[in-house]
User: Fold this.
Amino acid sequence: MESTIVKAVNYNSYFGANHVVKDVNIEIPKNAAIAVMGPSGCGKTTFLRGINRMHELIPGATAKGQILLNGTDVMEMHPIFVRLKIGMVFQRPNPFPNLSIYDNVIAGYKLNGISLPKSERDRIVEHSLSRVALWGEVKDSLTKKGTFLSGGQQQRLCIARAVAMEPEVLLFDEPTSALDPISTSKVEELFHELKKNYTLIIVTHNMQQAARVSDKTAFFYMGELVEFDDTKNMFTNPKDTRTQNYITGRFS
Amino acid sequence: MSVQVKYRIGKSIAFQGLTILLSVLCVVPLIFILVYIIKAGVTKINWNFLTNLPKPVGETGGGIKNALLGSVEVIALSTIIAVPVGILCGIYLSEYKQSKLAYWTRLSVDILQGVPSIVIGIIAYFWIVKPMGHFSAISGSIALAIMMLPIVVRSTEETLLLLPDSLREAGYALGMPFHRVVLKVIIPCGFSGILSGVMLSVARITGETAPLLFTAFGNPYLSFDIGQPMQTLPLIIFNYATSPYNDWHDLAWGASCILLLWVLLLNILTKVISAKWKVQL
Ligand SMILES: Nc1ncnc2c1ncn2[C@@H]1O[C@H](COP(=O)(O)OP(=O)(O)O)[C@@H](O)[C@H]1O
Ligand SMILES: [Mg+2]
Assistant:
């Protein structure tokens, strides 16, 4: 947990004239789980989407400042390369409805036209599904459509799809907000496993979740990064009054 | 039950009855047309009818082979011209829906859809037939392609707009470039809708006669040359039905029947195919 993998330097993002993320400076350490929390509308999603350059896909969206991945400005890398290095899991499970479970896992290769020998594909599929604890549940129905699974299974399938590309960083945007409690706890358990190999940045507006899964927590308020600290410190000894108010539930 | 309530229930039943009656009334014209044309035409259809060329007046046993094959060729050619252009345009409209170009394109396509077919025929006549110096199948195909285009464009656009953005984002987040997101995610997921748009546009132009009058023109002989005049089903119906000879009228009835069955078949096929290929989102 020493070296920095993602670093934001005076990072700002805008939707047209709407200044959504304001002057964020943060250093995210390698192989850790980072929670990003804050009231809804405070710019968590927008910040997250700036990291893998998904922000710029929205018409009228712009950004200033820098996001560095291993010291290199992501704006100087090709967006495709950035997104291969930094995977993303969305709020709602979004498996490809036209693909089987198997093909969903290797979608990043298959749909990008990267051809692999069958044995290699089989290995990636089994390995990725095992990492998200889904292999046992689906190994006999790999040819069924991804949308055939339950919501929680679909979300783990989406995580497997991101993991299959062997990225360095995984971004999660409220990955459990559309899931039932049992599926939620299954996904949370995964974070402990996944952070051994990847850096996880998890947006959540659920404080308990942040406390359960993360090593460090960033608190956003109205587009600003108010506080970034070890999760334990943050919840026991918040420095900023806005963080205190949030943690004690005075606004949500 | 009070009188007032009974009166209101009565009104409701009367209204329901009226909607049912009028729905049935909508189906009646189709049934009449089907019954009439099939009765008049189906007895004329036999193997010779399908495989012989038309014979001069007075000789029996003439057929519509040239019109049948001509129609297939002219329509296939129109489809080859209109479908790629229409689908790509529809993709542009759905993926860049906010752009100025999309706004103007959408407007032009809508206006094009409203242009009467005879006007499109005249335009094809002045722009293609006159410079070439003679009637040709290709000029007819181009005129029909122009008629297909708006249907293909708008059905593609509407199909793709219904796909959720989360699907596109899933693709981008895996490092897919725009063209792969379109070709590998968007089009496969919207395939059934795009295909049914194409098939409906084919059904729509199959019976178009006006644009072919000054373009493909018609041809009493069998021809596959796209640079030469070509016979098609609507043209043979037009020519034979307006002739004074009874056995030519019979050919026209038979050809009408074939045309009708072809359109009917296409519509049913569209329903079956779009149900079969539908991607469950
Ligand atoms: N696609 C968009 N277009 C325009 N404005 C947006 C868009 N998405 C978000 N915003 C604006 O950015 C602000 C922050 O949104 P978001 O990052 O989604 O917040 P959070 O994820 O913390 O709930 C919102 O107030 C919203 O008005
Ligand atoms: Mg959000």
The mean pLDDT of chain A is 94. The radius of gyration of chain A is 18 Å. The pocket of magnesium ion (ligand 2) is lined by residues A 44-45, 173-174 (CB under 6 Å). Residues 4-93+167-247 of chain A form a domain with the Rossmann fold fold (CATH 3.40.50.300).
